[in-house]
Amino acid sequence: MKILVINAGSSSLKYQLYDMTDESVLAAGRVERIGMDSSILVHEPHHTEEITEVSEILDHTTAIRKVLDKLTDAEVGVLKSTGEIDAVGHRVVHGGESFKNSVLVDSEVKSEIRRLFDLAPLHNPAHMMGIKAVEANMPNVPQSVVFDTAFHQTMPEKAYMYAIPKVLYKKHKIRRYGFHGTSHDYVSKRAAELMDRPIEELKIITCHIGNGASLTAVDGGISVDTSMGMTPLEGLMMGTRSGDLDPAVVPFTMMKEDLTVNEVNSMLNKHSGLLAISGVSSDMREITDGMEAGEPNSTLAFEMYTYRMRKYIGSYAAAMDGVDAIVFTAGVGENSVVIRQHVCEKLTFLGVEIDRELNKVRSKEPRRISTPNSKVDVFVIPTNEELMIARDTYRLVQQSKQS
């Protein structure tokens, strides 16, 4: 079975084509600047170098058609026809309380995703455009949706409820949902495999650290707490997001600076975090360079960032009454030697002991970076959300055939 995995944004689209017989990637790529006359399509077939094409791509339907053209191209394609694609899996950021698992797309599912637009106005509408674009190009191919929030639906009420009037939860479903669930699910399972222990016996803290960042407490294979909240704004300090702050900061700032709701929302999501404190960049590589050069604002940004990570790790170890493993993943987590070192070397109270030389090794393979004497195993595990989406899609399609 061949499955196309799509992650649609408002002006972009990423894709990977899997052969599920061995879970190999046949091709991958992305379309950028959708809606412009200078859109960019980058196609990476497994058997040759990537191809870049600039053309007018005004909507997602056209973008999907261009992707399918490349997948079936006589020279750079990997398929004889689009009929070889058995199913399409989509990443959808917010499933609210409606979706605890991945599902096949039907009219009811699409209606519910639309109803959830308010909870993820920047993401869910774009995902819906991706679903519609596939329908327009491949109307008879089954589609699935895999939700970032689904993995966290196992959180207990004490973890997901906010201490605000309960009527707000009953009327508007204001609560903690969490995100990056597909990634946290994948790397926690992979850590258990590397430890050669049943995940049901393990307490794992997974650190998905990229431009957006979240930590999750995974107890016995299920999410029991996570740092992001109703939206991806809560929790850790991030590239451009503030993370946790006193809620009174919002009305106070609006009053003092005469800001609208949209303006203060933009400030907290797009102009805060590392970018705001460093005054230089939201990119951890530039922050680290600035710190090593003795630049005080970059140093402060770095110290705030790692300090908050340690606080969350400590709190999740307390929440689970212990921790067996800590996993670093995503862009910063997988690539920043200095972040991992600064975080782990101040977790000695948990018995964490990092091997500096192992930590310096750069590899795309999962690896342990703790010493044999460490009471907590520490791993760097490259995430693979696309593979998880492909696996869920494969499972759902197989189940539908059997029913």
UniProtKB/TrEMBL annotation:
NCBIfam families recorded: ackA
InterPro entries in UniProt: Ac/propionate_kinase (IPR004372), Aliphatic_acid_kin_short-chain (IPR000890), Aliphatic_acid_kinase_CS (IPR023865), ATPase_NBD (IPR043129)
GO molecular function: acetate kinase activity; ATP binding; magnesium ion binding
Binding annotation for Mg(2+): 7, 385
Catalytic activity: acetate + ATP = acetyl phosphate + ADP
Biological role: Catalyzes the formation of acetyl phosphate from acetate and ATP. Can also catalyze the reverse reaction.
Family listed: Belongs to the acetokinase family.
Protein name: Acetate kinase
Superkingdom of the organism of origin: Bacteria
Pfam family, one: Acetate_kinase
GO biological process assignments: acetate metabolic process; acetyl-CoA biosynthetic process
